[in-house]
Amino acid sequence: xxxxxxxxxxxxxxxxxxxxxxxxxxxxxxxxxxxxxxxxxxxxxxxxxxxxxxxxxxxxxxxxxxxxxxxxxxxxxxxxxxxxxxxxxxxxxxxxxxxxxxxxxxxxxxxxxxxxxxxxxxxxxxxxxxxxxxxxxxxxxxxxxxxxxxxxxxxxxxxxxxxxxxxxxxxxxxxxxxxxxxxxxxxxxxxxxxxxx
Length: 197
Prior knowledge:
Elements: H1 8-60, E1 77-89, E2 92-104, H2 115-196
Antiparallel strand pairs: 1-2
Helix pairs in contact: 1-2
């Protein structure tokens, strides 16, 4: 850290810095609260989606044996396109899940078993939930990174910069007060000396 100059200019600089820190601190605290609330909201949504996926896969357990049959092949259902967008929460760019376009292979209904349509629809639901969960997890990751940075800034301002500026202002004020008092005393001494002479 640079040595503190005990001058009026430095005192003004320290006062300006203190004002700036005190002006930005509430904004940073508000951003921190907003990020925390958003992370909680995303976390709740992720838990709901995981529960929904567990319920869907639980329903699949009854059907899982038939997936081994040759009627269900991996090329029956394919993801053509994942539709995402960009959002902004408290200055953080986040991905938004908007949907999925699936391609279903054409198959002869007379040749394939009855359960195949049901299986394809349920696979679509599971994939949809899974992709939305991944997008929300990415949102969560970005929000948590920004929360960490914002928390560090709040702590820096609250615990280091504001107290440091106050201490510096006090030191400079005491020094300048002492210098002023010493100047007055020197002036009186020289005045008395001149009067005697």
